[in-house]
Amino acid sequence: MAIKTCFVAATDTDAGKTYISSMLLQGFSALDIPAVGVKPIAAGADAEGFNGDALLLQRYSGIALPCEMVNPICYQAPVAPHLAAVNEQQPIDETRLNQALAAWQQLPVRQLLIEGAGGWLLPLNAHRYLADWVAEQQLPVVLVVGMKLGCLNHAMLTVREIERSGCQLLGWVANCIDPDMALPEQNIADLQQRINAPCLAVVPHAPAKAQHQQLAQQMAALLLQKLS
Questions:
Q1: Across all residues in the chain, what is the average pLDDT?
Q2: CA 106, CA 201: separation in Å to the nearest integer?
Q3: Can you give 104-122 as a three-state secondary structure string?
Q4: What are the pLDDT digits (tens) for 48-69?
Q5: Contact 31, 227 (CB under 8 A)
Q6: Catalytic residues
Q7: CA pair distance 28, 216, nearest whole angstrom
Q8: pLDDT tens for each residue of 15-29
Q9: Cα→Cα distances 227→40, 114, 122, 168, 223, Å
Q10: Which long-range contacts does 191-197 make (Cβ < 8 Å, 24+ apart)?
């Protein structure tokens, strides 16, 4: 069976891409679906040179992979990757992204999650965005909406850009990152009316363990349906 691949994007930095990707990986595991999560580009590394988000994806993936394979391009400073690339004199090479994708798609799994960095229009250099690479690879997209004041604008701008790129938006996740957000249910209902793709899950702030597991399986099952 051919490996299914999707790209996990977000409305902004800290919207919860890694958290939701990790939940999806846990959901796939519970459904006995071999899956891996990878992060092509990251900025911000620990003393050993590894990115924390990549380490989480490595931890929850269904097969063991070296962190260098999970995250082939990693910069030390926690700043915009294209700026870190200049400061660290290591340009972002799209050939490495293509080679990594080819290697990932040969893994003995059924599902591959490719987590982005920052928001949808993450610059790679002065002229290219990570979204351009995603569109050229024809990767379908899952959008994580960080629920906070201003998320309606961020979500709709991102949805429009995903659609304009020609990518398929498989669905979106309402990730309630702000426990004090005013009118969260109304905001979610508003987005459900505006986004022409299903809401895969509403993930509350700090869900209980049982709810976390239930939502993880729900998201994974719905995503599998969309990819079939």
A1: 97
A2: 29
A3: HCCCCCCEEEEECCCCCCC
A4: 999 999 999 999 999 999 999 9
A5: no
A6: 39
A7: 8
A8: 999 999 999 999 999
A9: 21, 14, 25, 11, 6
A10: 191/145, 191/151, 191/152, 191/155, 194/152, 194/155, 194/156, 194/159, 195/155, 195/156, 195/159, 195/169, 196/169, 197/143, 197/159, 197/169, 197/170, 197/171, 197/172
Instruction: Using pLDDT thresholds of 50, 70 and 90, give the confidence band for residue 226.
Output: very high
Mean pLDDT confidence for 97-122: 97
What average pLDDT does the segment 214-218 reach?
Answer: 97
Q: What residues contact 120, with CB distance under 8 A and at least 6 apart? A: 9, 10, 11, 130, 131, 158, 161, 162
| DSSP 8-state symbol, 168 | -
Which residues have C-beta within 8 Å of that of residue 132, sequence separation ≥ 6?
124, 165
| Distance, C-alpha 140 to centroid of its chain | 11
Map tokens 């991102």 to a residue: 158
Query: What pLDDT digit, counting tens, does each position of 113-154 carry?
Result: 999 999 999 999 999 999 999 999 999 999 999 999 999 999
Look at residue 228 in the predicted model and tell me its pLDDT.
84
Nearest Cα neighbor of 136 from 106, 95, 103, 104 is 95
Helix residue spans in the chain (DSSP H): 17-30, 52-60, 67-70, 81-87, 94-104, 130-136, 151-165, 184-194, 209-227
Distances (CA, A) of 221 to 56, 181, 199, 224, 226: 21, 28, 13, 5, 9
Residue pair 203/215 in contact by the 8 Å Cβ criterion: yes
> So what's the pLDDT on residue 1?
55
